[in-house]
Amino acid sequence: MATTTDTAGTVDSSSASTETREANSPNSRVASDRQLLQTAQAEGRTLGAYVRLSGPGWLQSAITLGGGSLAGGLFLGTLGGVSLLWLQLVAIVFGVVMLSAISYVTLSTGRRPFEAINTEINPALGWGWLIATAMANVIWCMPQFSLCYDALDNNLFTIGGRSGLGDSNSMKWTVTAGLLVAAAFVVLLKVKEGAAAKWFDRFLKALIGMVVICFFGVTILLIRNGQVDFGAVFAGLIPDLSQWARPAGDLRDLVGQMSPDASSFWSEKIMTNQRTVMIAAAATAVGINMTFLLPYSMLARGWDKPFRGLARFDLSTGMAIPYVIVTSCVVIAAAASFHASADEAFLSPDPATFRTSALFDGAAPAIADRLGIEVDQDDRGNLVWTADQIASVAAVSADEKRVAASLVKRNAFQLSQTLSPLLGETGSKLIFGLGVFGMGFSTIIILMLINGYAFREMLHQPQGNVPFVLGVLTAGVCGAMWVVLWGGKAKFWLAIFASTFGMMLLPIAYVTFFLMMNSRRILGDEMPTGASRLGWNLMMGAAVIGAIAAAATAIYDKAMDKANPEAFTIVISLLVVYGALVAVGFFRRRTGTATA
After folding, report:
1. Does residue 186 contact residue 203 with C-beta atoms inside 8 Å?
2. pTM metric for this prediction
């Protein structure tokens, strides 16, 4: 009995000593947070603690609410009206499920996912995940810089009748350099943790809150003006898988009323665009680099097993809710403003009036294509219309014109016009411009942050400051090169390579997370069992199937792109090479030679 007492006393002493050292260490805040959570869980009042300690979910929201979300919502609303509202809702639910899974594994084991995947699953999956993440960070940083510049040029710097920043490269480089320095400063502050980290989180929450308020205001205005059909909105939240093969919204009815030839032509045009937009919009909900950010941001904060409930709460409130509100408001605003509609000038059969429409340059070529009219181009690639050609295009039915107008890729900043009746021209430009700028700038910050984590893993220095700074600056500097790279043919090749590889890897990442959640070798006694395991598998299985379907369609469409026949070689080569690497990885794993 004395021995038992002595042993217990030793354990208590050791525990007290550990607690003392932890309280006096730089990680004392983590220990305090852990104690707060454990106390709240024991007393059954976790909500207040969760709200106080949330953070990584807001990081996810900052990258989710970027230029891709804005463009995806805008094009969804323009093409399908509110009937496509369900898509981004389903995508974010699937994304939260898979991110919750990887957070569960990470917090239960304390292992870095890259190391765990390479050691326990397949090194080809781990390295593919890492490389695709870094590539996505670098390339998709470019449009965020472009978005910020456009917000300043088209909105904020046009207030008071000013002409904006202009289109000169010198001005673009100057503004971009300022954005890069500011973003790098904020990211490096985040590394310091402490008070700087808290201000970083508050800064992100303020930016995201501004974005939410901005687009929510657009929707409220439309509701006040009676431009929102609540019945159609609620119906649009119900998934409609037929939209994968048939036009959505009012365009379906318009096409159905046309002659067989016109109906066939416009249906093919619509579906080519609609599937692309649906895949792109779903991909912006949770991208390959977001699956990398979450576990490493949690580990960086010192989170572990007691934080699992907080992680799920954080993803649901900090990421999913802002995303659903903002994207739904953008879809509703775009649907009310642009879906199956056109201005009076474009609908006019008079050639002179028709030619004055702002939609002419974007929509008239599609109508000419439908009529078999070949329009000549000048030396700069601009179309040169004859009077007879304009007259022929102007004479088509109003239904065809509305369909053609819905296929025009509108400028996202045209949405700011919907705020004018409430806020006036100046107020609408200010509010909308700030919201869009906040989306772009916050996404730049998080992409740079993710790249810092990725470079640490790539160079096998999980705590290294030099690899982190190198990764941060690589993403930022490459993103700043948008001035010369994000346009023309270079933009196409960068986009097709990154989006194909990233889309191909997303379902593989999902399958990997699925395997990890069902691996007793990784989770041990923490592996879900019974009804919990069944629930996880059903939800994750649905997410995996959805990701595979979207990836297969995206890969097929890119491989069969008639406008770019070289894409077939790129896509098939990626599939073959990476498929072979995965097969070798599983073989090495079975023979016990896989390493991190």
Report:
1. yes
2. 0.78
